[in-house]
């Protein structure tokens, strides 16, 4: 069903509705039709006594069968449905090869700029003063532009955990902005306002800030610093070679630990740098349905686990992040298979930590996902406005996920620290 078809049907059965009431019913009809593959006449049959109140009640009950009777009605988010085909993601496989590379004048002679010239000889190279706006108007075209710059501000900062969520004490080093993968749930598609790949050339300045900084430790035995918040930690490492400096730096600082967080298998730089006990290489993992269907251009689970085994052999510890867990029919069996494949593949004694978090997103991100991935299934679940203003599964559904996955992971990897990520403190305390 198209948006126009949903609008036409609501206008036909309830022609006297105002704009806001029509908007809510159109969204509900569209979401139910998309999820269930049924016609509007089956979703909202015409009847003599049909009015806005009865129509909305019927549709909410069908769209939110788990939560309709218990959730306060102000937790159902029903914004205007606007789908722009021009925003749809291009899922044609292609290598990362920017058309234009901007290099800030201050880092024109940097190693990173030189490697970019070597790797992308057909690209157009331009110098910039750092004030000129670069990039595409559309997020989907962000890979056309690479900006090599000198970072002046965001060297280190605490993880921007959701307001009121339990914090794990993570500390961020912001080594890049933007990613070449197309994960349907990625917050960058709503958050990133400069549609280009940004890579800082002044890694030494980042590292120089660490010795004098104070870090949160959280529930771990020592402070944990990591990249991978605003980019994948390793997807560009063959270009940046950040790992070649980060690993030896932290090898000399055993009182700290560093985490490379990734979905890639781009581990050549790590293997060249040699192992390090206080450097953890962690992979996002998911069920095969989500990895194969919603994490476009990423390596599959088996390839990620094979890369993890290679890094473990080189002397690194491992981490894994079940985040986001998506609820759908058969999710228990699918996630259990992922845990089993990990159990059968990985060296258990080198798994340092495993985090778990269910799918959550801002209201703005919901609209971005609808536009960029109109055939997605990840939004078909029952998401409500929650304690931090984000859209989340209800407490009972999240508790069910954690009650299944956390004991399973703790039994399978008893030496690993298994914890919840960005969750309501009350739920965290229950586990």
In short:
The chain is an alpha/beta fold and 431 residues long. It has helices at 3-13, 19-36, 40-43, 52-63, 111-119, 188-191, 203-208, 237-240, 243-251, 268-273, 288-294, 301-313, 331-345, 363-372, 395-412, 425-430; strands spanning 100-104, 124-128, 145-149, 156-158, 171-173, 182-183, 197-200, 224-227, 257-262, 279-285, 295-296, 317-325, 351-358, 360-361, 384-385, 391-392, 417-420. The protein folds into 2 domains: 3-81, no CATH class; 155-191 and 202-430, Alpha-Beta Horseshoe (pyruvate-formate lyase- activating enzyme), CATH 3.80.30.
Polypeptide structure, described:
It is a single chain. The protein is an alpha/beta fold. The protein folds into two domains: 3-81, no CATH class; 155-191 and 202-430, pyruvate-formate lyase- activating enzyme (Alpha-Beta Horseshoe). It has helices at residues 3-13, 19-36, 40-43, 52-63, 111-119, 188-191, 203-208, 237-240, 243-251, 268-273, 288-294, 301-313, 331-345, 363-372, 395-412, 425-430; strands at residues 100-104, 124-128, 145-149, 156-158, 171-173, 182-183, 197-200, 224-227, 257-262, 279-285, 295-296, 317-325, 351-358, 360-361, 384-385, 391-392, 417-420. The strands form four sheets. It has an eight-stranded mixed β-sheet with strand order 4-5-8-9-10-12-13-17. It has a four-stranded parallel β-sheet with strand order 2-1-3-7, covered by helices on one side. A three-stranded antiparallel β-sheet has the order 14-16-15. Helix 13 runs parallel beside helix 15 (395-412). The two termini are 42 Å apart.
């Amino acid at each position: 069903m198209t948006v126009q078809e949903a609008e036409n049907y609501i206008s036909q059965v309830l022609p006297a509705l105002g704009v806001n009431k029509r908007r809510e019913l159109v969204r509900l009809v569209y979401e139910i039709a998309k999820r269930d593959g049924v016609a509007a006449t089956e979703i909202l049959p015409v009847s003599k006594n049909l009015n806005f109140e009865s129509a909305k009640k019927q549709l909410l009950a069908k769209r939110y069968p788990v939560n309709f009777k218990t959730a306060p009605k102000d937790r159902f988010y029903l914004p205007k449905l606007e789908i722009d085909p021009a925003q749809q993601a291009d899922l044609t496989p292609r290598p990362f090869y920017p058309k234009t590379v901007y290099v800030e004048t201050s880092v024109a002679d940097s190693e990173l700029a030189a490697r970019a010239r070597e790797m992308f000889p057909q690209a157009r190279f331009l110098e910039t003063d750092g004030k000129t706006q670069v990039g595409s108007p559309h997020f989907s075209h962000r890979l056309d532009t690479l900006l090599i710059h000198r970072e002046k501000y965001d060297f280190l900062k605490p993880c921007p955990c959701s307001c009121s969520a339990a914090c794990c004490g993570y500390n961020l080093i912001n080594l890049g902005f933007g990613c070449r993968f197309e994960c349907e749930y990625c917050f960058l598609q709503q958050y990133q306002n400069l549609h280009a790949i940004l890579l800082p050339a002044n890694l030494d300045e980042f590292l120089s800030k660490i010795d004098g900084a104070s870090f949160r430790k959280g529930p771990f035995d020592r402070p944990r610093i990591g990249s991978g918040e605003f980019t994948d930690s390793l997807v560009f490492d063959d270009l940046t070679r950040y790992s070649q400096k980060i690993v030896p730096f932290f090898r000399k600082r055993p009182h700290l630990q560093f985490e490379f967080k990734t979905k890639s298998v781009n581990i050549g730089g790590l293997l060249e740098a040699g192992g390090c006990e206080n450097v953890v290489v962690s992979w996002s993992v998911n069920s095969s349905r989500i990895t194969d269907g919603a994490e476009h251009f990423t390596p599959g689970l088996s390839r990620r686990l094979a890369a993890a085994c290679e890094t473990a052999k080189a002397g690194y510890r491992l981490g894994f992040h079940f985040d986001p867990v998506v609820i759908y029919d058969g999710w228990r069996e699918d996630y259990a298979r992922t845990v089993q494949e990990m159990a059968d593949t990985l060296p258990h004694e080198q798994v340092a930590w495993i985090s778990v978090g269910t799918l959550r997103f801002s209201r703005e991100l919901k609209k971005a996902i609808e536009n960029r991935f109109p055939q997605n299934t990840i939004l078909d679940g029952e998401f409500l406005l929650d304690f931090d203003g984000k859209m989340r599964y209800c407490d009972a559904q999240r508790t069910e996920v954690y009650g299944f996955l956390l004991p399973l992971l703790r039994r399978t990897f008893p030496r690993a620290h298994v914890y919840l990520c960005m969750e309501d403190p009350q739920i965290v305390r229950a586990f």
